[in-house]
Amino acid sequence: MQTLISKESTFSEGINLLLELRGNLFEQISSIIKTFPPVAFYQLPFGDGESNHNATLAWSLWHLFRIEDIVCHTLILHDSQIFEEDWQEKIKSPLITTGNELYGEVMVEFSKKLNVKALYDYCKAVMDSTNELLKSLRFSDLKRKFSCADKERLIAGKCVSDSDSASWLIDFWCGKNVKGLIQMPFSRHWIMHVEAMRRIKNKLCQEAKKGVDQIACCGLSCNHCFLTAWCGSCRTIYNTCSFATCSPDGVCPNTACCKEKGLDGCYECDELYDCKKGFYSLGKDTNAIRAMALFIQKHGKKELLKVLETLHKKKDFQKIQEVLGEEIEDGLRILEEIR
């Protein structure tokens, strides 16, 4: 991407690739916002420190998009930041700075105060605004540098703390040309912090699953699922399984049905074999999971886990469908044979 942007003949192609990258990264942010509970956004699972993952999810969002807003509007465009459109009041933030000066419990307390939904809306508005800037750039704009007056304007705006952990930002930004700012913060900064957010959310999921029953309501074994690294299972508040993420309010219909009926899982239901709810509505794509639930119905969870352990020792696979197939009876037969 950077190579494409560096050449006039491929500049437009590079910008389009950058916009695509930013769109893909923002989809990951949207998924976190949609599927994680409010408490997740002020947790500090990796503790205090100076790495990008030594942060809360809320702070990561705030920091990433405050910097982008400041650089895009105050530094490059010389106009008003998106933040000035009453976003401080909407987000309930006590700060206007980038947040570089916050660590540990101070960061946690700051994160607790934020309206995460409003923060997400602000992030989206900033991204859209920067995207418009990127689309408007010409190749000749890349060499534009910044002056002492630009630096003084940033200082006067008081959007960067004068603490040692933050004040260096102004010199850093003003020491670059527009091309350098496209690299940092408009692309690399996103990659760094979205990756850190992925680590944070995965850590929260793993911590939540400790000591929790790893058989999902649908009959799937979370410990044997290829998504186990980043899903907290439907038995915790960090349920980010693939079906939950595309369901209303991030709740899988199978889980909702079990809770409504007071069942531990679908395997306790008499309607299991012909059920068309949630995960089971996909038919042949998820009949292997239904087969596992039916196996539990007959032999129990512990017996299924033993069978799955044996299966994983014998075969290299990610999805259980690869082994149990698309038909319920075939799946049951294979499970019984291994038992």
From TrEMBL:
InterPro entries: DinB/YfiT-like
UniProt name for this protein: DUF3795 domain-containing protein
Gene source species: Treponema ruminis
